[in-house]
Write a structure and sequence with these properties.
By secondary structure, the protein is of the alpha+beta class. The protein is built from 2 helices and 2 strands. It is rod-shaped. The model has no long low-confidence stretch (mean pLDDT 81).
Amino acid sequence: MLEKTKNVIFKVAIYIRLSKEDMDRGYDDSESVKNQKILLEEYVKNLGEEYELVDIYIDQRIYWNKFQ
């Protein structure tokens, strides 16, 4: 008798942030953020059915260089 294998689903989230260059220009809803979202959603989709995109985090205000 063959054992039925359990399909494992990996839950993933993507994190997008406003680039320092866009922030310096004063952009709120930048093309950078829109493009990153499209690219990352497509990337997760291409990983295969065992990956499920469960959340998207978008940080449009903070860049880490200001803490240095």
